[in-house]
Amino acid sequence: MDKHYKVQVKDLHKSYGSNDVLKGINLNVKPNEVVCMIGPSGSGKSTFLRCINKLEEPNSGHIYVDGYDIADPQVNINKVRENIGMVFQHFNLFPNMNVLENITLAPVQLGKMTKAEAEKAAMHYLDLVGLQDKATANPVKLSGGQQQRVAIARALAMKPDVMLFDEPTSALDPEMVGDVLAVMKRLAQEGMTMIVVTHEMGFAKQVADRVVFFHDGDIREQGTPEEIFGNPQHEDTKNFLDKVL
Ligand code: ADP
Ligand code: MG
């Protein structure tokens, strides 16, 4: 374990029955680093992200978040999770609450903030995602892109120090994608540590400090965007990029 890293993953294995989905993943993410994970469908990207906040139990290996071994029973996983924001493809907003209530629920329930503090923070994050005028709206009445930006504001309201994104724009109509990516880019520029699974190669090129290519449960290749997109070394990387670029 090395306190220097925000997230440290060592020799992570995960299988479902006889399906070896993660075959010994090693990845270290530094504070303020933006790591984009690309790779074919079924290569294990979502499973990997889900292991980081213990939504999945690995079969073996180690995961440290902020230096805490999340498999250690002494470690309060809920406290660790409070510092990990997660945004999924499907926004999973609570349909029976307005936008503001969606954002303030967790910080208030978990005792992180008073209701007044949480509302002030919520308005700040709504402003950041460009939706300050939607505080009292019902989320199901918003567009997909707006809903996803609310989901990002909701994750940020917990003041996480790492954000995990799992294909946050894949379910959106094309005209909505840019607004969501712009919010993510701004977060990256403000220094958020981010792991982003994405099919948006333009975003990865522009925003990632490091691009990690997943293939068949393994990291085949990683490097700067220039290295991965400009001069991929591995046949699997070349084949994948030929298909998506
Ligand atoms: P990706 O996100 O790269 O598309 P996933 O992590 O979703 O890949 O899936 C990797 C493999 O794990 C696939 O073969 C998928 O069918 C399998 N898988 C994922 N989740 C489960 C699960 N809960 N139960 C069984 N198999 C799963
Ligand atoms: Mg996935």
UniProtKB/TrEMBL annotation:
The keyword Methyltransferase does not apply. The keyword Transport applies. One of its GO terms (molecular function) is ATP binding. InterPro entries: AAA+_ATPase, ABC_ATPase_HisP-typ, ABC_transporter-like_ATP-bd, ABC_transporter-like_CS, MetN_ABC_transporter-like, P-loop_NTPase. CDD domains: ABC_HisP_GlnQ. Keywords: ATP-binding, Nucleotide-binding, Transport. PROSITE patterns: ABC_TRANSPORTER_1, ABC_TRANSPORTER_2. Pfam families: ABC_tran. Residues 7-241 form the ABC transporter domain. This is Amino acid ABC transporter ATP-binding protein. It comes from Limosilactobacillus walteri.
